[in-house]
Amino acid sequence: MKPFSKMTIVALLGACAALPAHAADVDSISQIAFGPADTIFVADWKAGKIHALSLPPAAAKASAPFNILDLEGLIAKSLGGDRVTVTDMAVRAGTGEAYVAVEHGTARKPALFAVTADGIARRVDLTALKGTMSPIEQPPAAGKTNFWGRIPERSLTVTDMKWHDGELFVAGLSNQQFASTLRRMRYPFDGKATSSSIEMYHASHNQMETRAPIRTMSFATLNGTPSLIAAYTCTPLVTVPLSALTDGAHVKGKTIAELGYGNTPADMVAFEQTGQDGKTTPYVLLANFARSANMIPVSAIATAEAQPGLSQPVPFGQMKGPEGQQIPFAGVTRVDNLDDKFLLVVRNDVQHARTQLVTFDKSFLFRLSDFVSEYNFPDYSYATSEFQTKYIKPVQDTLKKEEGFAADVQQ
Question: What residues form DSSP beta bridges with 188?
């Protein structure tokens, strides 16, 4: 029998990657992202795969504010009381639903739930969904390294995953010498994913870094160039032209900002905010595990990107480059656009030791019900000044209604 040529083998592997299959072999879920139509992508780091699963069609529905104050408790009820840890969240656009990926029980089994603003959590039967799979080439070896004795290196195979302009962008690690890797996958999967390694200058550490992965990312057109905006641990902000991310390329990103030591970026989202003058401004919001969120105008990122970039160390504890506005997003671990009006976040409420799924109005970006202040006392009157009546009361009334406290609005 004549042996297969290399081109034939590649073609066969590509065809196999595109074959429809049941999704019962999902071993883990580290990241989820929505793609075209009813497709949800699931990153399975244990198996080294990206699953593209077809969800049943959902009716279009206007969004409503989320005020779920014990998300893990809500989901645990559907899992027989198992301990639950949220691993990711993504909004299914136009449906008013948030999809929440979790691990549960001592075996840390994966599960996926569709959650609505009225507090209903519906488990998605992964074994009933059909879809396709694309292998993640050259993932870190299983069992190779455990950071701090508890974090498998392979769990960083996919640290962020975003659908953008007809492609799935997958950030994480590979098993190569330059381990920080950005993969691009076309969908439907065709077995032709590209893979680029990325290095960047870390101003706090004063060194080029090739292993630390992108922790979260977003996209913007900067000075006419479609670009990746990436955040790394401890906390460089880096830009890369998308045109540079070709298969096999080793890319040096441009470090445009140092946003503070001792922090891991949690998530990044792009949105527009409308000012009092009616003009809209594009922003990128970077949520952080150990710092307030940074809301940075895309124009400021573009200005910094047009400069040479950071190449010298930044003094310890200082920041440099576009920082933007500090947003009170303490404990936020995931953030997505619910619609044009609201951001939806998963956050760990440190005051009450609960994981929440709640909305933030993009016009104000804080939750009034997080605070007990002068305004909350029953004998308080906004009529003490025109400023309180004209500016403070309308904002607080809006937030009270959105957060489920319409009865507290003073008439």
Answer: none
Radius of gyration of the chain (CA): 22
Name the average pLDDT for the chain. Answer: 92
- 2 CB burial (10 A radius; 0-12, 13-18, 19+): exposed
Whether 86 shows a pLDDT value over 50: the answer reads yes
Burial (CB < 10 A; 0-12, 13-18, 19+), residue 202, is: buried
17, containing H or E segment: helix 6-17
Contact in structure between 35 and 99 (CB atoms under 8 Å): no
Question: Residues 159, 179: contact at Cβ < 8 Å?
Answer: no
Q: Are 239 and 305 in contact (CB under 8 A)?
A: yes
Kind and range of the H or E run holding 241: strand 236-241
Residues 178/197, Cβ–Cβ less than 8 Å: yes
* Residue pLDDT, tens place only, 40-83: 999 999 999 999 999 999 999 999 999 999 999 999 999 999 99
Assess contact for 323 and 296: CB atoms under 8 A: yes
* Domain segments of the chain as ranges: 56-128+335-366, 372-408
Using alpha carbons, list the distances in angstroms from residue 398 to 62, 69, 119, 327, 356: 18, 19, 21, 19, 21
Residues contacting 283, CB < 8 A, separation 6+: 270, 271, 272, 273, 295, 296, 297, 298, 324
